[in-house]
Amino acid sequence: MERLQKVIAHAGVASRRKAEELIIEGKVKVNGKTVRELGVKVTDSDTVEVNDVKIEREQKVYYLLYKPRGVISAVRDDKGRKVVTDFVYGVEERIYPVGRLDYDTSGLLLLTNDGEFSNLLTHPKYELDKTYVAKLKGIPTREQLRMLERGVMLEDGKTAPAKVKFNSGDRKKGKSIVQITIHEGRNRQVRRMFEAIGFPVDKLKREMFGTLSLHGLNAGEVRELTPHEVKQLRALAQTGK
Ligand code: URA
């Protein structure tokens, strides 16, 4: 559901302010009926007319980006730093990231103009499994990793159980690589979880989001999701995986 004035503005008919005026003036119809209140919300299947002309709704688009490190998960940045939409060329729809990855984190990030889809995937109640690979300073023991599996206390509460897999350790360099799967999406959560057991994260990459992986992409590359992938993600979110 989206506000009527927002839908009109997104269709390129008028600015949001002008759209509000058009509504108040009685020039907007929803499913054939004149609407004069500003609070009205519409779905994709509602017909919206402005001055008796049906508006074309923006097509929903879905992209998967392999976000490089050193990029902001936003559509613009006041300080002129690179943002995730800089990597998606020739797309006219107003896409934005689904959730976020830290500036220093690389990996899988979805971009869309579908607000409902984005809300579904980031809603705390439905959050999907996300798998990260962390390069750590130091080599944790099996017992320390078990603490992450059970949940650790952070300043915003205890984390939900996680799946953790030790990939490799280098005693000479004092570094290790650990894979972790979580379904929550708190700010800097993975970094904070490893810090909580005494192992700062050197590098972090998100490798999977629900059923999606980075397979076939290099950093900075992007591809469209297939309709099947979109459906599958929606279904996963709704069943709480
Ligand atoms: N956890 C983090 O610490 N950083 C991210 O970007 C994502 C998850």
Strand content: 25-35%
Bound ligands, each once: uracil
Kindly state the percentage of residues in helix. Answer: 10-25%
CATH homologous superfamily grouping of the largest domain: Pseudouridine synthase I, catalytic domain, N-terminal subdomain
**What average pLDDT do the residues reach?**
94
* CATH fold label of the largest domain: Alpha-Beta Plaits
Enumerate the spans where pLDDT stays under 50 for 5 or more consecutive residues: none
Distance between the termini: 24 Å
Principal-axis shape equals elongated
Number of helices: 6
Number of domains: 3
- Main sheet characteristics: 9 strands, mixed
SSE order: EHHEEEEEEEEHEHEEEEHEEEH
Radius of gyration from CA coordinates: 22 Å
CATH top level label of the largest domain: Alpha Beta
Number of strands: 17
EC number: 5.4.99.-
Organism: Bacillus spongiae
Protein name: Pseudouridine synthase
Pfam families: PseudoU_synth_2, S4
Per-chain topology:
Elements: E1 2-3, H1 4-10, H2 16-24, E2 28-30, E3 33-34, E4 41-42, E5 48-50, E6 53-54, E7 62-67, E8 96-97, E9 105-112, H3 115-122, E10 130-137, H4 142-150, E11 153-154, E12 157-158, E13 163-170, E14 175-182, H5 189-196, E15 201-209, E16 212-213, E17 222-224, H6 227-239
The structure holds uracil (URA).
